[in-house]
Specification:
Helix content: 40-55%
Oligomer: single chain
Order of helices and strands: HH
Radius of gyration: 25 Å
Largest sheet: none
Low-confidence stretches: 46-54
Mean pLDDT: 75
Length: 101
Protein backbone atom coordinates (compact mmCIF):
# COMPACT_ATOMS: atom_id res chain seq x y z
CA UNK A 1 0.00 0.00 0.00
CA UNK A 2 1.40 3.37 -0.90
CA UNK A 3 2.01 5.98 1.75
CA UNK A 4 -0.54 8.28 0.08
CA UNK A 5 -3.36 5.88 1.01
CA UNK A 6 -2.45 5.53 4.69
CA UNK A 7 -4.14 8.77 5.83
CA UNK A 8 -7.26 7.74 3.92
CA UNK A 9 -7.25 4.34 5.62
CA UNK A 10 -6.74 5.96 9.04
CA UNK A 11 -9.58 8.42 8.44
CA UNK A 12 -11.85 5.60 7.28
CA UNK A 13 -11.06 3.52 10.35
CA UNK A 14 -11.65 6.49 12.67
CA UNK A 15 -14.94 7.32 10.96
CA UNK A 16 -16.07 3.72 11.23
CA UNK A 17 -15.24 3.64 14.93
CA UNK A 18 -17.10 6.88 15.59
CA UNK A 19 -20.05 5.63 13.57
CA UNK A 20 -20.16 2.44 15.64
CA UNK A 21 -19.96 4.41 18.90
CA UNK A 22 -22.98 6.44 17.79
CA UNK A 23 -25.18 3.39 18.45
CA UNK A 24 -23.94 2.73 22.01
CA UNK A 25 -26.98 3.07 24.26
CA UNK A 26 -27.05 6.03 26.61
CA UNK A 27 -28.33 6.05 30.18
CA UNK A 28 -30.68 9.01 29.96
CA UNK A 29 -33.58 8.75 32.38
CA UNK A 30 -36.74 10.78 32.19
CA UNK A 31 -40.01 10.87 34.05
CA UNK A 32 -43.10 12.72 32.92
CA UNK A 33 -44.69 12.99 36.38
CA UNK A 34 -44.57 16.02 38.67
CA UNK A 35 -41.48 16.63 40.75
CA UNK A 36 -41.75 15.99 44.49
CA UNK A 37 -41.40 19.24 46.44
CA UNK A 38 -41.33 17.99 50.03
CA UNK A 39 -39.23 15.17 51.42
CA UNK A 40 -40.79 11.84 52.19
CA UNK A 41 -41.79 11.08 55.79
CA UNK A 42 -39.93 7.77 55.84
CA UNK A 43 -36.17 7.56 55.36
CA UNK A 44 -35.03 5.67 52.29
CA UNK A 45 -31.86 3.74 51.68
CA UNK A 46 -30.15 3.43 48.34
CA UNK A 47 -28.64 0.10 49.26
CA UNK A 48 -31.21 -2.64 49.66
CA UNK A 49 -30.84 -6.31 50.36
CA UNK A 50 -33.94 -7.31 48.46
CA UNK A 51 -33.51 -9.44 45.36
CA UNK A 52 -36.89 -8.68 43.86
CA UNK A 53 -37.14 -7.81 40.19
CA UNK A 54 -40.49 -6.06 40.32
CA UNK A 55 -41.44 -2.42 40.32
CA UNK A 56 -42.38 -1.37 43.84
CA UNK A 57 -44.70 1.47 44.74
CA UNK A 58 -44.44 3.13 48.15
CA UNK A 59 -47.15 4.85 50.19
CA UNK A 60 -46.41 8.30 48.82
CA UNK A 61 -46.83 7.25 45.17
CA UNK A 62 -43.18 7.04 44.15
CA UNK A 63 -42.03 4.02 42.15
CA UNK A 64 -38.69 2.28 42.09
CA UNK A 65 -37.16 1.09 38.85
CA UNK A 66 -36.91 -2.52 37.79
CA UNK A 67 -33.46 -3.74 38.86
CA UNK A 68 -33.32 -6.88 36.76
CA UNK A 69 -30.31 -7.84 34.68
CA UNK A 70 -29.92 -6.70 31.11
CA UNK A 71 -29.06 -8.66 27.97
CA UNK A 72 -25.29 -8.67 27.45
CA UNK A 73 -25.34 -10.66 24.19
CA UNK A 74 -24.82 -7.65 21.86
CA UNK A 75 -21.87 -6.48 23.94
CA UNK A 76 -20.23 -9.92 23.94
CA UNK A 77 -20.72 -10.32 20.18
CA UNK A 78 -19.47 -6.80 19.44
CA UNK A 79 -16.47 -7.17 21.73
CA UNK A 80 -15.57 -10.51 20.16
CA UNK A 81 -15.85 -9.00 16.70
CA UNK A 82 -13.59 -6.07 17.62
CA UNK A 83 -11.09 -8.45 19.20
CA UNK A 84 -11.05 -10.59 16.05
CA UNK A 85 -10.55 -7.54 13.81
CA UNK A 86 -7.70 -6.30 16.01
CA UNK A 87 -6.04 -9.73 15.97
CA UNK A 88 -6.42 -9.79 12.20
CA UNK A 89 -4.66 -6.45 11.91
CA UNK A 90 -1.80 -7.69 14.08
CA UNK A 91 -1.41 -10.87 12.00
CA UNK A 92 -1.54 -8.86 8.79
CA UNK A 93 1.07 -6.41 10.10
CA UNK A 94 3.46 -9.16 11.19
CA UNK A 95 3.01 -10.93 7.85
CA UNK A 96 3.81 -7.75 5.92
CA UNK A 97 6.89 -7.12 8.04
CA UNK A 98 8.26 -10.63 7.50
CA UNK A 99 7.68 -10.51 3.77
CA UNK A 100 9.45 -7.16 3.51
CA UNK A 101 6.68 -4.94 2.15
Amino acid sequence: MSSARRPLLTATAAGTLLGALWFVPSANASWDGPARTEPSATPTSQVTTQARVTTTASDDGTRLADTGSFDTTPYVVGGSFCLAVGAGFVVYSVRRERLGF
